[in-house]
Amino acid sequence: MAPVHTSTAPASDGATVPSESRGAALGNLVRRPETGALIGTLSVFVFFAIFGGSQFLSAGGTASWLNVAAELGIIAIPVGLLMISGELDLSVGSVLASSSMTLAIVSGHWGAPVGLGILLALGLGLLTGFLNGLLVTRTGVPSFVVTLATNFGLAGLTLGLSRVITGTTSVAIDPGSPAKELFGTLLANKFEVAIFWWIGVVLVVGWMLHASRYGNWILAVGGDTVSARATGIPVPKVKIALFMGSALGAALVGVIQTLLYNSAQVANGQAFVFNSIIAVVIGGVLLTGGYGSVVGVVLGTLTFAIVQQGIYYTGWNSDWASLILGILLLAAVLMNNTFRKMALSYAPKRKA
Amino acid sequence: MSEPLLKLTDVSKSYGATAVLHDISLEVRPGEVLCLLGDNGAGKSTLIKVLSGFHEPTSGTFEVDGKPATFKSPRDAGEHGIACVHQFGGTFPLMSIGRSFFVGAEPTKGWGPLRRFDRKFAGEVAVREIRALGITRVTDGDRLVGGLSGGERQALAIGRAVYFGANVLILDEPTAALGVKEAAHVLRIIMQARQKGIAVILVTHNVTHAMAVGDHFAVLIRGTLAADFRKGERTREEITDLMAGGEAMAELEAEIEAYQREHAGQVPDPAELEQLADHQKPTA
Amino acid sequence: MSTKRTWVRTGLATMAAATLLLVSACNSGSSSSTGTDDEATTASGGGAGGVDIYVVGGKSDDPFWSRVKRGAEDAAKVAESTGGSVTWLGPQNYDNLGPDAAKLIDTAVSNGADVVVGPDWVPEAEDAAFKRVVDKGIPLFIYNSGGLEAADSVGALNYIGSDDHEAGVAGGEYLGEQGVQHVLCVNTLPGAANSEARCAGLAEGVEGSGGEAEQLPMPSSSFGNPTAVSQGIKAALLKDDTVDAVVTIGTGDADAAASAIEQAELGDRVSLGTFDLDETQLSRIKDGTQLFAIDQQPYMQGYLAVSMANSYVLYGIELPQRPLLTGPAIIDGSNVESAIAGAEAGVR
């Protein structure tokens, strides 16, 4: 190839904006609304590192909260994205259970290839999300109600069909290679492969929200739907896609848990409905939409998982775990509000 | 006089059986400020929604630059150069200035799957455009819109519309939520836009603001165009009367005088007054 | 009722249609063969064609109750063969279990039950409803929960089921025989009477042979999430290296516990056992990664309760065993093969 002369001269960006000095870096951090979430994660980690002892800090102890965080995170990130756009999804519990049962029935009970079972499980998730989105955007009924209805409806459908088809409500499956390795194996006998799925989801969604133009659309839809529509953003399409995303996340965790524990239970998954909302809110996403970040949701998820699992390393009676979670949720929201106010009230000192 | 940028002929809008706009015909010319006046419920916001593509009219025609056009969505209207700015600027308090400025038309860099939002470019352009409208306090495109004052947000929204080539700018009560100084600043921005040859449709309750910048006035009463006149053709008092449904009030006063003549100077009691008032309502 | 009376009544029915409502009694089969279609419909529609058995049970989405229901359904075939019926009444959820169950018991009475079968989950809420059943002269059987004590206090004929405390004791004694010293009883429903009784019985059984048992309660935020349960158990095992057995109160939790033991790499030190049974437990017992399961044989609870209700009303049969226990049965490597066959049939 002929050598190509590329001028690598620095882009002369006749900047009209005076760039701020590095000294302002700390100030900028304080003005970022995720700072509250970061403080939360660090505090609970230090707290349990002190009271949980060396086992908490060991590889096994780390895996404890990381595995829980990974599965929760795969759901919490798309749920957070949806919440940024101003909608809630309470149907993730039943989506998880239905995807899990679909996979176990198709590939375990009927003996079809595991790949087909996984595709159907994820497809069912996408379909549920599509219906949620369609109902919310077409009828104008609040997503809280629509997805609550879906959660109940789908739970009933899953239970009914499972009993009709298999006669029981828990179905075993022997996934075999490579599905087991891809979704439901433990690396070093400790770390769930779900951690890599979580990292993947974080990277893809993080890119989408913060770097791609679609992220701007999501923030705008949640911030002010009417104005967003006025600028030409296809609001219903954005919302339907986001509902499909959260349902896909839940279906993926259903697949992961089924292949990890080699069985599916109809009653699984409901804890994820509120746990995902808690993680997202601790992560600084505004419940009413319009603001949030993937970094925040990751931190919120980690905080939740560390508290939920850390208590077992303290040797204290785990009866108190829910109390700590409740206090933490309230404290996190108050702290997030404070940091958000700081970010909003900020204005440069000099007056022109 | 220049050719109209936007021309409405006999535009009507009804929701089911309820008629909201009747046969509105209007012309909007470049470099002019059209003040749309009227009481609450007169149909101003419906007219704006029809103009900006949120609702399609039930009947009547639109012409843009002399060519017939139909707006099926806000995007359609936008493509014809019509932009609408809401009372609070229609901006997103928790988005950065740069992001907010480019919502729906994000600048990107890179190719294929790596195409990404150009934050730096967005911030620079946003700040430049806002400063060009005289808001010098805004220096950083990464700041959140929620930190801006009401007037600054209007400047952001107007700057955005102008940047994206709007030649008809619809401003819905831009000064209603502002203090005196901020309102004056927004009016100055409107004059700047006018000088650039943009047609501005200004919806307002405030006659002083309307008189200050308006070239052309249209008064809506109960969904009909009650008056359409140019600057200097009516006095401030006449405009105020019109906005308060003044013509109807004047007629009511005449009725009361007639009643007094018939009843030897007796003032009608409130119940009778109400009947008179009902009698005066124009038949829709 | 005696065959003789049936024939007398059937004869009357064929002779005098006007007295049909009074006499249309026991055997709708013979009634329909001798009467017109209309008469037959009246006979069974009036609920007098056989024994109408109402069974109050759990939500059918937990694996356990689906087996109880299966047993009830199988026994129903016998009741149906003599013109009877079995109606299953279950709550929508367990959020308000006591009052919900009491309402279901009242529903059974108002629907004209000939005999009622119900679990005494929450005595404070349900006993008044059970007493209303007995006061109306309707035979009552308590099954699954409550024990004989509850049956006697409300005036029920018998109790069919296992006793959570007894089951725990049996499990504890079995562990003691295996030389286990320190048992962790994983309780994913802390505060519920039966899970507490299981853990308490387990402790009692282990203490008989000099060992000890402690409870590991799990918060509600882990419910239905095997990963959270699993990681919690793993943490407890890593924290305390004297634990040499984990027992879970249900089968879903046992799957999570198996994973926890594997992740903590303590398979050699820690044995796994569980209350209740499903296919996965059976295959683990077969593989040797799980020591045992304590089965209360739920199928038999539904089956025996319905059979006894039917045969008591029809023929006055009562059994001398009070209570009539369906468990505990310990399933371990020695008897796992036959249990697997039962599981394949959806019964165990």
Automatic annotation (TrEMBL), chain A:
Residue stretches spanning the membrane: 37-57, 63-83, 116-136, 148-173, 193-209, 240-261, 267-287, 294-314, 320-339
Membrane topology qualifier: Multi-pass membrane protein
Pfam short name (any one): BPD_transp_2
InterPro entries noted in UniProt: ABC_transp_permease
Signal peptide coordinates: none
A Gene Ontology molecular function term of the record: transmembrane transporter activity
Compositional bias ranges of the Polar residues kind: 1-10
GO CC annotation: plasma membrane
Compartments where located: Cell membrane
Positions of region (Disordered): 1-20
Principal subcellular localization: membrane
Alphabetical keyword list: Cell inner membrane, Cell membrane, Membrane, Sugar transport, Transmembrane, Transmembrane helix, Transport
Function: Part of the binding-protein-dependent transport system for D-xylose. Probably responsible for the translocation of the substrate across the membrane.
The protein, known as: Xylose transport system permease protein XylH
UniProtKB/TrEMBL annotation, chain B:
Keywords: ATP-binding, Nucleotide-binding
Domain ABC transporter: 6-247
Cross-referenced SMART domains: AAA
CDD domains per the UniProt record, alphabetical: ABC_Carb_Monos_I (cd03216)
Top-rank taxon: Bacteria
Annotated region (Disordered), positions in chain: 261-284
GO function terms (MF aspect): ATP binding; ATP hydrolysis activity
Protein name (Swiss-Prot/TrEMBL): Sugar ABC transporter ATP-binding protein
Native species: Promicromonospora soli
Automatic annotation (TrEMBL), chain C:
Primary site of residence: other
Keywords: Signal
Domain of life: Bacteria
InterPro entries: Bact_Solute-Bind_Prot2, Peripla_BP_I, SBP_2_dom
Location within or outside the cell: Cell envelope
Gene Ontology, cellular component aspect: outer membrane-bounded periplasmic space
A Pfam family annotated for this UniProt entry: Peripla_BP_4
GO molecular function, one term: carbohydrate binding
Descriptive protein name: Sugar ABC transporter substrate-binding protein
